[in-house]
User: Fold this.
Amino acid sequence: MTIQPQIELLSVNKHYGGFHALKDINVTIPKGSFVALVGPSGCGKSTLLRSLAGLESISGGEIRITGKAVNDTPPRHRDVAMVFQSYALYPHMSVRDNMSYSMRLRKASRAEIDAAVADVAAILGLGDYLDRKPNALSGGQRQRVAMGRAIIRNPKVFLFDEPLSNLDAALRVHMRKEIRALHDRIGATSVYVTHDQIEAMTMADHVVVLKSGVVEQQGAPLSLYDTPATKFVAGFIGSPAMNFVGGIVGDTGRAVTLDLPGAPSLPLARTMEPRRQVDVGLRPEHLSIETGGAPGIETTATSVESTGSVTYLYCGGDPEIVVVLSERERISQGDPVNLTIAPDKIHLFDPETGAALR
Amino acid sequence: MRSRRLLNGYPKMKRLLSSVTDGKGFDILLVSLPLLFLLAFSGLPLLYNVLMSFQEVDIFSLGRLIRPFIGLDNYRELFAAPEFWPIMWNTMLFVVCSIAGQFTLGLALALFFDTGFRGSSFLRGLFLVSWVMPGLVVGAIWNWILSGDFGVLNYLLTSSGLISENIFWRSDVDYSLWAVVLANIWLGTSFNMILLSVGLAGIPKDLYEASELDGANILQRFSTITLPMMRSTIGAVISLGLIFTLQQFDLFAAITSGGPANSSNVAQYWAWELSFRQYDFAKGATVSTLMIITVMIAAVLYVRSTRHEVRI
Assistant:
């Protein structure tokens, strides 16, 4: 049995006057999956979401929901629910009326509404707040009401537009788990826009990385981390961000010489075209300190930050190399360090196109 | 700094100066100036007016404050006057129809300009021209428009076949009040539009998007989002409209002078007529006092409606 795609975006294009906001977007979202659209601000992720909702019209391509093209379908007939960044709660209505708004519009019976509101309120723990107005709620509670308003409709698709960005850090971590749990519980199909790669990585089954209106890469979260297709994705996914150093492949093609003081050379796990210019990507958490005599990157620690669980080491200057150590190391500012990395953890990118070299 | 040094020997002056520079007491000074002004030029005349409505006033006792007290005689006589109820009815018609017209047109225009087409804010600004014009000028313009023989309104109505013979708007007892209502609607529409535009602009756009996704069509969005979110603005506009309409004097003076046969006379014009045409100052004051009560009720409604604003 093939899984029926719930949403298909087929070479979707969007122009704002002369500005090309979305360029040939192709994404297929299977039923029941949680997809994150992630990218820096201005990359088109919100535009894509709003196009899915029908709040923006697209200039080219096709959007299909359960196999049906919805390009010309107004938002209210698309059967999608959206949680807005601002929550967009109706300030003049109580929590109960906010959540039951869609039901009241389609003239559902009083009993039906009461039952549905009670159900959703129980799921979200809003039972005590049903008669309050939104301005008497905390940020987290408002967020839940916004979710409740979406859940009560039992739509084909849930759309989330950076729903956690107005919450404080602790609540954000909590709500991220809660949203994912809710998604699994009601078996929904969700599209989630965020600029926070951690949210995307932790919540989604499938991550779509956008940059300047182009899909840079899409796939399972860990595949983006392990095998980024471009230098942009490599730098965007992972925290702290990947270190990039210019370099040149050695004569044998089995090592790369870094463009750093002392021209350190790192062995490669595969054979590359000799004497090729490359950008070398080293994840901070893959670097370690070599205490034996093996050759590595000889540099000095310019700054050391210890959080207790991990230690952030900032080395050298141009470019600075960040190292994350999970063991406590007795290194202080100014100490010389020798950094090494497993050959198969080295990422190489074309300096011109940014494409990964494999 | 220099002034401080100069005042070193004068502690009292120093304290006075520092009360201004520190802001202590300065706020009270700022408030007291307009309050004094209001008291002198609005409060006292108001009280004097109320006082007069309980006194016997004639042209000889006009200069005195102490005059024979006659209780509610003025009110009794006024209520018994044959023109009292027709004029009150005219006043109510004038107020209700003017506000209804101003508000409906103002809201329609505000919604129209809120679509944000090219040049919409420029055009919206142009509409304010009608509001900055003095009532007497507006009256003069409408005199020409409404003129029975050569008025452009009659021309439009006859050439479009709506009427077969000219209507003498200003001198026909059936039309004279409506002539003023028409002019007053024209005069007040732009003010309604501007206030309602501000109210519309204050509604976050994502509420409309959310309700659209929730399944609301355009009429449902209007009735469940626009109108309730505009509640306080609408309350303010209607209360202010009531106050302004009850103050509307110029148009009556310019267009019909309350005639013919009181057919377009309203309370505010009648009060002036009683006082300054018939020199019955006590009766004029009595009509004014009745109007003060009405306006005060409107003012309370206005303050209440602005206090009940929906916070987001």
